[in-house]
What does this fold into?
Amino acid sequence: MALVIGLVTGLLLARPIQDWRRRAARPGSGGSRWSAGRRAIPDDQQGQLPGLGRKAIDSLRAGVVVLDSDDVPVLVNPAARAMGLLRTGATPGSIAAHPLIRTLAGQVRRTGVRREIELDLPRGRDNAGENPLGVHLRAMGLGAGYISVEAADVTESHRLARVRRDFVANVSHELKTPIGALQLLAEALVDATEPGAGAPELSEDMIAARRFAERIQHESTRLGRLVQELLELTRLQGAEPQPAPEPVAVDWVIAEVVDRTRTAATARHVQVTVEGAKGLTVYGSDAQLATAVANLVENAINYSGEDTSVRIATRATDEHVEISVTDQGIGIAPTDVDRIFERFYRADQARSRSTGGTGLGLAIVKHIASNHGGRVEVASTLGGGSTFTLRLPASPPDDLETILPSAGIEAGPAEPRQVRP
It folds into this structure.
């Protein structure tokens, strides 16, 4: 779809358009279904546009907006107008693109990279929070400062996603109380079957009861962790507004992670080492970033053998701060690399059960990275260990990326990438 729109809009804008750009902001006569085009293009030059290309853009269900280097719409089809992607311009009778459209176009001009986002747009002031319009926006450069933005209606998929998130959140909240009670009862059973000092040996029945109680305690703890991670993932996916981004010291994040994972590392005789640049700063939520890195380190510890090491390294580039976690574990098979960030996916089911994993840790890392305008990558060799790299922006988020997390949406470049050696 994007390729077709790019080709057609390229044809439509192939004629000289310098004069069109100067006249784009002038009031035009309304009434035409291509009213934006009429305002941007003089009547005496309308005939220069290829009629077939104009009809093709006009007939698309996807909205199309083309902005010039001054962010003035020079081409708008009816679908884009119906989606509310236009606003009243600064001068009477003129039009302007939605602020998000202009911000997205500015990002594409600055970076030269195509951008994709999904978000919910209010349908009006009276019902801004009710039944929002879900749109998938894709922006690409056409040259000479012109940007084409394609908008697809994804309202239904967003509604279903909200229903699913609400269901998971409600069920998880309801499960917390009985799981907590189950953990307390299991702990009481374990204490009740504990042999006292000088007490005779336990009978076979008591030994069996103690074994079952310990198993119940272990499984209830695992179930409690699963519910907690489900709630965390639901929040990250937009069930709750994300906190405003603040400067976060990477040194603090690493120190917090080392402290959280010290017990697990000691139990498995795994040494956690830290190296790399100091004094780095990223922007976002310190608690979420610590959770993301801790999940990576815990994964590395659980899938490493005894008497091995896990290395946490930090590095700064011109635009990003990288936090990598390298282990000497079992590695990941090439057939599993592309799926490890999916919820509940486990490359080794037996191994995951033995380590008590829930299958949600890496999914949480992916969403935290996305909400912070970054991404997570993995490079792994089966039997040779893995390296997970969390790449985060080194500068404060711009206007668009500040809006995205609060709406529970993701930007294209924030999706996880898998890198194979």
Notes: The chain has three domains: 2-153, 166-239, 246-418. DSSP finds 15 helices and 15 strands in the chain. The radius of gyration is 27 Å.
